[in-house]
Design goal:
Layout: H1 26-43, H2 52-61, H3 76-80, H4 88-93, H5 106-119, H6 125-130, H7 133-140, H8 145-153, H9 156-165, E1 204-207, H10 210-215, H11 218-230, E2 234-237, H12 246-251, H13 254-273, E3 277-279, H14 283-296, H15 301-308, E4 310-311, H16 313-322, E5 335-340, H17 343-346, H18 353-358, E6 364-369, H19 386-403, E7 407-410, H20 413-423, H21 434-442
Parallel strand pairs: 1-2, 1-3, 3-4, 5-6, 5-7
Helix pairs in contact: 1-5, 11-21, 13-15, 14-15, 19-20
Length: 444
C-alpha cells in the first residue's frame, strides 16, 4: 500500500467520541499515544510551538533506542501536561490530519488523555480550583474582597506565600478584579433606525461578556459596545451567562463542559430567535462555540444553530465592511501597531480580520505577530510552567520591541497581559485589545 507523505487537502477535524467507553480505555489510549508520538517523532515540524513537542522529542532522544518504543509509557503523560490545547499544531502545521489516512489530531488526543487523567482523579486540587471560573471569579469580585485580591496580587511577600501554598508563580501577572460584574451595569445605547442585515449578519448583536470580560476587562466590553453602536448595530448584553467551558476543557472535565453548555444554550437560542447574532470579546470563548462544542456534540441541533450565529468581533465587523455598512471615518491614526494574533483566533480559520480592520485606519502601520504568547488560560500562572510560558512568549516580546510600536496588544487580553509583562514587568496593563484601539481611532 502506498502511504502519502503529507497532504494538500484542507484539514477536517473529526467529532470527539468522548462518551464512548473506548475513549477512556487505558490500553487503547496508550496505544494511540504511542502511534501518534511515533509519527510526530518522524516529522518534528511542531517543535517550536509549545513545550509538548520538545518534551516528547527529549524523551525519544534520551531513550536507549532513540525511538518512541524506547520511551517508558509512564512518561507519556509528561507530554500531555505541556499541551494547553491551542490547536496550532493541528490547524497550522500538521500534514497528517484527516482526511490523511494517518488521521493524526494531536490536540484532541491530548484532550482525550487529559479526560482520562481527570476521570482517574489524577488532577491537582489547584487546577480544579482555578478552572472553576464562575464560582471563583464571582467570589473574588465581591465588593471588599476584590480590593483585597488586587492588593494581594501586587504584594511580593504574599505572592511568594501563595506560590508555596497554592502553586501560582509569584511573578506571574494576574488580572485585576472588578467589584461589580460588567454585564450587570451596562446599558448599551440604541442606534437610531432599523438594523441593516447582510447575508450572514442581522445587524443586531447580543454580547456574551464571558468570565474575563465580566470580572477583569470591563473596558474591552465597553469599547466593543461603543464600536458596534457607532456602526449602527443594535446591541444588548446577555445577563447571567455561564463560563464557556474552555478552562474545564483544558482540564479534561468534559462532563462539566457539557453542563456549562446546557446552561448557556437556552439564553443564546432566545437571543438568536429574537434576531440577534452573538459576539464574545475573548477568542477562546468564540472557539468553544464555533469549533470545540460542535465537535463534542455533532448531532446537537441547538449547538449547530449557535455555531452559525457566533462571531469573533472583527470577523463580524469585516463582514459588514464588505457590505459597506462600516463607518470608515476615523479621526485619530494609531501610528505603529504591534498586533499579536491570538492562537484561539488563528485556528478558527477565517483569516486575519483584526489586522484587516486596523489597516482601514489611515496612518496606521500594523505588524502582525503569528506566534503563541505562551499564556493559555492557566499555563502561565502555574509555578511549574511559568518559566516555560515566558520562554514561549520571548519571540513575541522581541517582535513587539523590534516594531518600536506606539501601541501593542492582542485579541486575547490574557495573552496581551503576558506579552506586556515580558516587555515591561512594571507595566502589565500596557497592552490594548484591538477593539480598544479602534474606539480610540474613531475618537468616541
Amino acid at each position: 500500500m502506498t502511504v502519502r507523505e503529507g497532504s494538500l487537502e484542507a484539514p477536517e477535524r473529526q467529532p470527539i467520541d468522548w462518551r464512548s467507553d473506548s475513549f477512556y480505555d487505558q490500553n487503547d489510549l496508550y496505544d494511540e499515544l504511542e502511534r501518534v508520538y511515533d509519527i510526530c517523532h518522524g516529522c518534528r515540524r511542531c517543535v517550536s510551538l509549545c513545550d509538548a513537542f520538545p518534551t516528547l522529542f527529549d524523551l525519544v532522544d534520551e531513550s536507549d533506542t532513540f525511538e518512541v518504543d524506547g520511551v517508558d509509557k509512564a512518561d507519556y503523560m509528561n507530554v500531555v501536561d505541556q499541551c494547553f490545547l491551542c490547536d496550532l499544531c493541528a490547524e497550522t502545521k500538521c500534514p497528517y490530519l484527516p482526511p490523511h489516512e494517518w488521521g493524526v489530531d494531536f490536540p484532541h488526543l491530548m484532550l482525550r488523555a487529559k479526560a482520562y487523567k481527570f476521570k482517574q482523579g489524577d488532577t491537582r486540587w489547584r487546577d480544579r480550583l482555578i478552572t472553576s471560573t464562575d464560582p471563583v471569579f464571582d467570589t473574588i469580585s465581591t465588593p471588599g474582597i476584590a480590593g483585597l485580591a488586587n492588593a494581594a496580587a501586587g504584594n511580593s511577600t504574599l505572592r511568594k506565600v501563595g506560590e508555596k501554598l497554592v502553586g501560582l508563580h509569584a511573578e506571574a501577572p494576574l488580572p485585576h478584579f472588578e467589584s461589580k460584574a460588567t454585564s450587570s451595569r451596562l446599558t448599551p445605547p440604541q442606534p437610531a433606525g432599523t438594523p441593516q442585515p447582510t447575508e450572514t449578519t442581522t445587524g443586531k448583536v447580543a454580547i456574551y461578556v464571558t468570565c474575563y470580560g465580566d470580572h477583569n476587562e470591563p473596558q474591552v466590553v465597553e469599547d466593543l459596545i461603543a464600536v458596534l453602536s457607532h456602526n449602527g448595530i443594535e446591541v444588548k448584553v446577555l445577563q447571567d451567562a455561564r463560563c464557556c467551558g474552555m478552562p474545564k476543557l483544558e482540564l479534561g472535565d468534559l462532563e462539566k463542559v457539557a453542563r456549562l453548555k446546557d446552561a448557556n444554550l437556552p439564553m443564546f437560542a432566545d437571543a438568536i430567535r429574537d434576531g440577534y447574532d452573538i459576539i464574545a470579546p475573548i477568542p477562546s470563548c468564540v472557539l468553544m462555540y464555533k469549533q470545540e462544542l460542535p465537535l463534542m456534540f455533532p448531532e446537537d441541533e441547538a449547538v449547530a444553530t449557535v455555531q452559525a450565529h457566533f462571531f469573533d468581533p472583527f470577523e463580524y465587523l469585516m463582514v459588514r465592511h464588505k457590505a459597506n455598512l462600516i463607518n470608515t471615518s476615523f479621526s485619530q491614526p494609531l501610528g505603529k501597531v504591534a498586533y499579536h494574533v491570538a492562537c484561539h483566533q488563528r485556528v478558527q480559520n477565517f483569516g486575519m480580520k483584526t489586522r484587516d480592520f486596523l489597516n482601514l485606519i489611515p496612518e496606521t502601520e500594523v505588524t502582525a505577530i503569528e506566534r503563541c504568547s505562551g499564556h493559555d488560560g492557566t499555563y502561565a500562572v502555574k509555578a511549574e510552567t511559568y518559566e516555560k510560558a515566558m520562554k514561549i512568549a520571548r519571540p513575541v516580546v522581541r517582535r513587539v520591541n523590534e516594531a518600536e510600536a506606539d501601541t501593542f496588544g492582542s485579541d486575547c487580553p490574557m495573552a496581551g497581559r503576558l506579552i506586556a509583562h515580558g516587555v515591561d514587568p512594571d507595566d502589565p496593563d500596557a497592552a490594548q485589545h484591538p477593539i480598544s484601539m479602534v474606539r480610540q481611532a474613531y475618537g468616541i
